Amino acid sequence: MGRMQRKHKRGISSSATPFKRTPPSWLHVTNDQVVDTICKFARRGMTPSQIGVVLRDSQGIGQVKAVTGNKILRILKANGLAPQIPEDLYHLIKKAVAVRKHLSKQLKDKDAKFRLILIESRIHRLARYYRRMHQLPPTWRYESSTASALVA
User: Fold this and answer.
1) DSSP of 20-62
2) pLDDT of residue 55
3) What H or E segment, with its residue span, contains residue 72?
4) What is the DSSP letter of 136?
5) Which residue among 9, 35, 101, 146 has the highest number of C-beta atoms inside a 10 angstrom radius?
6) In Å, how far are 26, 94, 108, 119 from 61, measured between CA atoms?
7) For the chain, percent helix, then strand, then coil, each to nearest 5?
8) Which pLDDT belongs to residue 152?
9) Is 112 left (phi over 0), alpha (psi -120 to 50) or beta?
10) Residue 22, exposed/middle/buried by CB under 10 A (0-12, 13-18, 19+)?
């Protein structure tokens, strides 16, 4: 995917995944324990990225795929706990709802109006991708009037 509404690239520094695809020797958790922990966190309402952060910080599991052989979202789908709409699309919709709420109070904020147009174009682009990949139903559409119900 190309550039998405940005003036500068913001550098190239980022974290890299470990080269070794095996779990570290000091990690003594089984596949079933990790899957149970992931399902427990998902039932509490945590998103897949939040689950990954908790597993990394509190239990020392840097890469779930190295331990279980599957990614967090695939484990959630296998157990029927995957979110209704993908996480990145959910957060874009949440951001658009917040900007629209701001615009209802601050009518003259032209910059916020422009940013809302950019956010909603990203939502439409991402929704088109997810419909094509069959992660959203073919009839799913983003509508600003019903968006607050999606993120509530």
Assistant:
1) --S--TT----HHHHHHHHHHHHHTT--HHHHHHHHHHHH--S
2) 96
3) helix 72-78
4) S
5) 35
6) 11, 29, 48, 34
7) 55, 0, 45
8) 76
9) alpha
10) exposed
DSSP-derived 3-state class of residue 13 = coil
Q: CA-CA distances (angstroms) from residue 147 to 23, 63, 120? A: 41, 33, 11
- Picking from 48, 81, 82, the residue whose alpha carbon sits closest to that of residue 65 is 48
Q: How does DSSP classify residue 114?
A: H
CA 67, distance to chain mean position in Å, is 21
pLDDT at 2: 60
Q: Which amino acid is at 109?
A: D
Q: 35 to each of 22, 64, 74, 109, how far by Cα in Å?
A: 17, 9, 11, 47
Q: Which residues contact 74 (CB under 8 A, 6 or more apart)?
A: none
- pLDDT tens by residue, the chain, 152 residues: 566 677 667 788 888 888 888 888 899 999 999 999 999 999 999 999 999 999 999 999 989 999 999 999 999 999 999 999 999 999 999 999 999 999 999 999 999 999 999 999 999 999 999 999 999 999 999 999 999 998 87
